[in-house]
Amino acid sequence: METPNYGIVLSGGGVRGIAHLGVLKALEEHSIYPEIIAGASAGAIVGAFYAAGHSWQEILHFFKSTSMFSWQNYTYRKPGILDTDKFESLFASYLPGDSFESLTKTLFVSTTDIEKGKNVIFKEGSLVRKVLASAAFPMVLSPVRISGIYYADGAITNNFPVEPLLPLCDKIIGSYVSPLPVVQPGELTNSMAVLERAFKIGMATLSESKFEHCDILIAPHQLNKVGTFSINRIDEVFEIGYAAAFQKLEELH
Question: Rounded to two decimals, what is the model's pTM?
């Protein structure tokens, strides 16, 4: 029996994106190795490193050893707390070919064209700055300029970029790490809280409408209690992703 051509879509979610590594571990233990990857934000980072041939162990080490909030990374006269450009050399060391064509797997990276307000999915040419752009979380990381256009977090417009996989894959695996938490009325007491909630609802609704395209969906609800930048919970998030994926795969066998 011929092995199916697997693709995987990796959503954004900040630190929750570490759960994707747990998913990859569980997939490998079940002899499933996706060859086509689409990612947004943290999912784009994981996807790019995995497509470059790095193991989930190596990618986990990257996240645990990288200090995003070092004073050296703070921005000056740019919109954001951190200067995304300052991560370019670090990412280049993990993506030495700096091109989609140099990867060992097919990769699609979701970004947002801030100027035109539309989703752009990159699949060819230079790589590092496009991955950085996909992960440029608004207000925290500055947008990235590519060919004269500013791009930011792919999750803004397409946090679950399954579309490129549809015509290419026999089986599609979805790893969604941005579950919408239930909030209490007391948590929505100011305009910013309501605005943030509205943004998250819109993002979740768009993403969840595409779950039907997945043959295997891993979306651990436990992650809704993990903050976007809860860097002290990396090991916990990894285990949540692994346990959810392992259980789902065992159910299918």
Answer: 0.92
